[in-house]
Amino acid sequence: MTSPSDLLDIPGGFADITLVSIKAARTVTDSHTGSTVNAEPGKQFVCLEFKIKNTGETKFDTYPFAHADWTGKDGEVQGLGHVLAIECEDLGQQGDVFTNQPEPGPGQFVRGTIPLSVPSTQSGRIEFSDRADVPLVYVETSPLR
Questions:
Q1: CA atoms within 13 A on the CB side of 92
Q2: Strand pairing of 124-129 and 68-72?
Q3: What's phi and psi for 48, nearest 5 deg?
Q4: 63 phi and psi angles, rounded to 5 deg
Q5: How confident is the model over 15-63, as pLDDT tens digits?
Q6: How far apart are the first and last CA of the chain?
Q7: Which helix (H) or strand (E) holds 135?
Q8: Contact, 49 vs 111, CB < 8 A?
Q9: How many CB atoms lie within 10 A of CB 115?
Q10: What is the reported pTM?
């Protein structure tokens, strides 16, 4: 359930959220151009593929999936932005980036991806929260070996 935002006139919503797949890599090759993109030192790319089915009675606000935070095992917190240099489909996932997805109406669903760059020095957790900073979903991460 997402919290309503009176300021932005966005009602709260209900959805079934499924993590379809998670992929991690230090290097991604663009399938269209053949160019290679490397993660920054101490980082790794993580691509998440979600299916979000609206189970409520109004459009579901997918805003939370455009913003994430990462919390390390040691308590360090970092805000994460989407990595525009890579596409999750290059790691075998399906769906557009969530910032390009429409908000699903009642009974509808969207499937999308979220490319992120997270620290590779320790285990942590990616957390998505609604506009009121109420946590909705989290995904555990581990450093690549």
A1: 6
A2: antiparallel
A3: -110, 135
A4: -45, -45
A5: 899 999 999 999 998 877 888 999 999 999 999 999 999 999 988 888 8
A6: 36
A7: strand 135-141
A8: yes
A9: 24
A10: 0.86
Give the residue carrying structure tokens 């993580």.
46
Distance CA 2, CA 132 (A): 8
Select, from the ranges 10-14, 61-65, 117-121, the one with the highest average predicted confidence (pLDDT).
117-121
Q: Closest by alpha carbon to 67, among 98, 40, 25, 26?
A: 98
| Interatomic CA distance for residues 82 and 65, integer angstroms | 10
Is residue 93 a contact partner of residue 47, using CB atoms and an 8 Å limit? yes
**Any bridge partners for residue 53, and if so which?**
16, 109
Phi, psi of 56 (to 5 degrees): -95, -165
From the list 17, 23, 9, 47, the residue with the least C-alpha distance to 129 is 17
HEC-encoded secondary structure of 5-44: ECCCCECCECEEEEEEEEEEECEEECCCCCCEEECCCCEE
| Distance (Å) of CA 2 to CA 23, 26, 55, 137, 142 | 26, 33, 12, 11, 28
